[in-house]
TrEMBL record:
One of its GO terms (molecular function) is nucleotide binding. Residues 144-275 form the GFO/IDH/MocA-like oxidoreductase domain. The lineage of its organism: Bacteria, Pseudomonadati, Bacteroidota, Cytophagia, Cytophagales. This is Oxidoreductase. It comes from the Bacteria. InterPro entries: Gfo/Idh/MocA-like_OxRdtase_N, Gfo/Idh/MocA_oxidoreduct, GFO_IDH_MocA-like_dom, NAD(P)-bd_dom_sf. Residues 4-135 form the Gfo/Idh/MocA-like oxidoreductase N-terminal domain.
Amino acid sequence: MSKIRLGMIGGGLSSFIGIVHRIAAYIGEEYTLVGGAFDTDYDNAIKFANKLELDPSRTYPDIDTFIEKESALPSDQRIEAVVVVTPNFLHYPMAKQLIQAGFHVICEKPVTNTAAEAIELEELVNKHKVVFALTHTYTGYPMVRQMKSMIAEGIIGDIQKVDAQYYQGWINPVIHDPEKRKSVWRLDPAKAGQSCCMGDIGVHAFNMIEYTTGLKTLKVLSDLNTLYADNPLDIDGTAMLRFEDEVRGIVRASQIATAEENSLRISVYGTKGALKWEQEDPNYLYHLEDGEPVKVLKPGHVYASEFAKQSTKMAPGHPEGIFDSMANLYIGAAKAIRGEEYIDGAFPTIRDGVRGMKFIEAVLESDKNGNTWAEIDD
């Protein structure tokens, strides 16, 4: 079976996340990168294409030219799926153009700047019958998928409490200097959107809760901090969550948690036990039960769920990481693009993008209204 012809918007010479996407796409051996619009500087885009030994004629100066030229090619030659790895404010307009042109889309998060935009994209995805994969990368880890399977099987009983944390400290060196913080695009509403901390990392914690538990958040009550009056976007915050059946949860997110690197953690407590997972040590899932020693589950073993087994590419004892996690999303999207059967949850969809944007807006509304409950509709 031929590989899916892949294009990329952004992700050129200076892009860290572009490298992650390309490696992830190659790991599963389902895609081949053909071309794209890699940089706003066309000379740099050509240099990048030459470095990757891509056909320069399939390297375009902008997305409009990309769509025009690729759409004119025979169906067995044109690019089929496109990765959008640009700054946040470009996700919506570029994804919209690509969907309307009939391309499958793999998009970085946040999916859009507003929930209304995300809903519009969802409607377009359904109308044009394309696959839309949103790269909430952490859902691709085998032990996260093991966690999802165990919760669905009722192994920890009925859920009573969920606690998700995402702490980083990267913004500390610039946030205390008025001039330096003006140079950070994630603090610029025109480029980052409505939120910095919650929009960038808090939404990951929120997505992990809904992904692993299957719960739908009904309400949030948040308290956000910009630290300085002239800083327009949040860099720290806490959101209390309410789900069905009186279940409670919390999302704690910060970019000023000094010396923290990428501390994403989730704990789910049920009537019969609990499960804990940490992104910085992703190959261990902890299963807790009253009166029993802690069980430590690892990838690649016979006890793993079918979903976890499908998401594991190495033998036991060989750690898997962020590239492998992202690769699992690409493999899932490839099955959908080809019309093959895949397990629900194989990749985040536009629906996850809509839910994420609604969470962000509810958090901002709750904080703005004096820390009151704000509802999230479905």
